Amino acid sequence: MKSAKISEAVVRRLPIYLQVLNELHIREIQTVSSQELGVKLDLNPAQIRKDLAYFGEFGRKGIGYDVLYLIEKIRQILKLNQTIKVALVGAGNLGRALCNYNKYSKDNMQITAVFDVHPEKIGTDINNLVVQPMSELEKVVAEQKIRIGIITVPAHEAQNVANQFITVGVEGILNFAPAILRVPDEVRIHNADFTRELLSLAYYLNHEGDVSDDSAVD
Amino acid sequence: MKSAKISEAVVRRLPIYLQVLNELHIREIQTVSSQELGVKLDLNPAQIRKDLAYFGEFGRKGIGYDVLYLIEKIRQILKLNQTIKVALVGAGNLGRALCNYNKYSKDNMQITAVFDVHPEKIGTDINNLVVQPMSELEKVVAEQKIRIGIITVPAHEAQNVANQFITVGVEGILNFAPAILRVPDEVRIHNADFTRELLSLAYYLNHEGDVSDDSAVD
């Protein structure tokens, strides 16, 4: 069975829809209109209807979308109706935070193995996962059928870790290091480097600050 | 002085250009072509020339861009040629990781104050910053002229923290909590919720996995 190709922009909005829908579900709200979703997400209702229409006819005129049905449908599209195992390399504060988040997550993505390159971290414990040396990566990824790798090492170590993930056959990488990584076409890489969001945020601050030279175009 | 309005997509690419240019500078590379940047960033060279042309004529035919000049120019556009003070609320593992990163950052964005709502965290130390109670937020933001707030609290506490940031006058918010936050138009909010990147990554995994039902469009 072949899926229609969904644009990257839509795929990236789906987790946001899912987040809002989960919140509605917790509040026991059973239906939602594209107008209501639009207000919550600061998106045009027409855009929302268009995005969701990719996956068939969900909405009903005058009633809106069934929240639970839409949750299930989006989870299915994002392939979250399966357990996806994840390995994390870099057992620092960020790695610890991610493992901790993961423990409470209802998503079917589970960090099931943690690795580090630094001997002093090997054998320590993060949320009941023992930090393992990189020499175990290949064996563990194969045994546990791990499909995604998370990189939470410093920037200068990140490409090396990515290379090892690629060698052992992970299909997707989530990179938190502030570095541009090169991966082959068949591996999908997403960046979660917060410094980008932080730096682009600065652009939108008011011009009142003590800017030494304005950003005018000549 | 008025700046030409730069599109959001370009503003979001500027930190990525900056990252690559900084890497080139460290490697003592003095000029770079749009072709070379394109390969590094997996972007069309024509797109790169167009993006950079927003800010005047940088490049020289046959020579390319002067790396250091472009770094300075982008820093100026992103207003990184000033010190921007940042407050963080949520002294957990993620907050700790961000403060630690910040300590080594060469960016002029500095986390200068950390807050938490939980009494047991107040008074503890993160990278030489003492965790303060939320009751001090208004005073500290005013005294230190803090302009950006980072939210690293659980999802159900995030809107409340955002409201407090807004009340005390921060201009921008970087939200790490997996929650959709509502802010007034004059406050800029960026999301750094990694779960979105992780969930959208699942979509791109190969179809070989044990998917119980395919994501086909009817």
What would you note in describing this structure?
Two copies of one chain form a homodimer. Chain A is built from eight helices and nine strands. With about 220 residues, the first copy, chain A, is α/β, with parallel strands linked by helices. Chain A has two domains: about 10-75, Winged helix-like DNA-binding domain superfamily/Winged helix DNA-binding domain (Arc Repressor Mutant, subunit A, Orthogonal Bundle); about 85-195, Rossmann fold (3-Layer(aba) Sandwich), CATH 3.40.50.720. Chain A has a seven-stranded mixed beta sheet. The first copy, chain A, has a two-stranded antiparallel ribbon with strand order 1-2. The longest helix of chain A is centred in the first third of the chain and has 19 residues, at about 10-25. Chain A is elongated. The relative contact order of chain A is 0.09. At the A-B interface, α1, α5, β9 and α8 of A face α1, α5, β9 and α8 of B.
